[in-house]
Amino acid sequence: MSLIPKPRVVVTIHGIQTQGKWQKNITPYLAKYGLVPYHIDYGWFSVLKFLFPISRERQLDRIRKELRDLVDRAGTRRISVIAHSFGTFLAMEALLRENGTFKYDRVVLTGSIVPRDFDWKDAFAKRWVTAVRNERATSDWVVGIADFAAHHLRWIFWLQAGDSGRERFIQEAPELLDDFVVGSHSETHNALKFEQWARFIAYPLLPGDILERVWSELSAFRGAVATMLGEAPDKVRVNMFAPIGGALRIVPGACANMTYAPELDLKIELGHGATGAAFSKGNPCIVTKQGEFWSGSSLPETELDKLNPSLKWVIALPVRSASRKVTICVINVDGFNIPEKLRNVISQDAQDVAIALLGMIVPRVEPCLEVAFRGEYLPELEV
Amino acid sequence: MEIRMVPMSTSVPADSETEPEFVMVELSGPFDPENAVLRRARQLVLESGSPEMLESFEAAVKSGAFLAKATED
Q: Highest-confidence range of A151-160, A183-192, A267-276, B29-38, by mean pLDDT?
């Protein structure tokens, strides 16, 4: 059993006729969010090698092996990817041909030559990919050549490629994000983009500006809940759990009045306890502690031991993404005295409280999390 | 729209008189903004004394967003 969260590895793959200087430049931006960069460097790869099916396939085989070895050694099956040009072809072909041996978390495609009719919906449905940002450049003639070779000279080059680095993918999905710059094949490689990609990949870890807003909302929520339930504010706490490293964990910094350190390392499996049940069922859950024990809790002892011994009740509120129709996190409100309305958790009072709390917090937090999901920035206040 | 409490405690037998201590608030059926539970919940939000929270609650009821699962089922 390992208590260490799985590492969040970000593989970068460069394109042809380059040694991928951008890969080295992006490293500090990834490191800033605790991501582990792994730069694939297969050396200078000429246009001829790219067009020639045998050398292209040989390179693809090498990448597949390298990625298989990487996930084995890193102890995770899901990695994130930032790829450019031929690197986008290698990344997506490797994913399809490995048929689930490894999966991608978040993918950034730049100067993409992946076919525009790529079946993203299938990839999302199979959970082979969590989310994608396609970073296009409107004057990218290089991807146009790949598209031409794939569609008009296929009998020579046997190439499955397209110009998705210039034009949008045909399919649309909330997990398939699209952005563009006016420019050519490598114009997306700049510091502003690097920061945005790192934010995108780091999700559900929240960047400082969004975390500040979320924390502020959770704190205000805590105060309102305390008033509503007739509790002292210091007896009520709020925290946000999201899938991190293969389990539900507290999003670093997204909590209010959580002063008992062991709880910050809680690791909750789907379906376990009120938090895990709320996440997997998509419904609020209420649990109270009567005497020394948590009734019906399926949390393992290692996790129960981390709970503040004074904790007496928890209401777990699932937050669903309006666009993606999936539960994205659970906000827990809990406390040290069981409020009158929660004395009997199956009562109408308890039901009303859970519904009230859900309505109070979800609209305040969900939009922030959606912005973070896309790697974007909250709108600035305009006066 | 139906909102019901589902006991989650495996340790409490169904015929036991002991009150469950772990429940799920299950939402199902088409969303109904006039549901009695929502009306009572709104009253509770008013008791929080926070106009911002009331505004959020009203927005959630209007859009049905916070009960999305009910509308999707």
A: A267-276
Neighbours of B39 (CB within 10 A): 12
CA distance B55 to chain A (A): 8
User: What CATH number matches the domain at A208-374, 3.50.50.60, 1.10.10.10, 3.30.450.40, 3.40.50.300?
Assistant: 3.30.450.40
More confident residue, A89 or A152: A89
Tokens 């002991």 locate to B18
In the Cβ-directed half-sphere of A186, how many Cα atoms lie within 13 Å?
Answer: 11
**Cross-chain residue pair A283–B69, CB shorter than 8 Å:** yes
Q: Which of B44, B61, B69, B72 best tests the A interface by mutation, with the highest count of A CBs <10 A?
A: B44
Dihedral sign, CA of A147, A148, A152, A157? negative
SS3 A341: helix
For the entire predicted model, the pTM comes to: 0.90
Residue range A143-167: average pLDDT? 89
The tens digit of pLDDT for each residue in B49-60 reads 889 999 999 998
Q: Which residue of A has its CA nearest to B58?
A: A359
DSSP letter at A261 equals G
The answer to whether ipTM exceeds 0.90 is no
Max CA-CA distance within chain B?
44
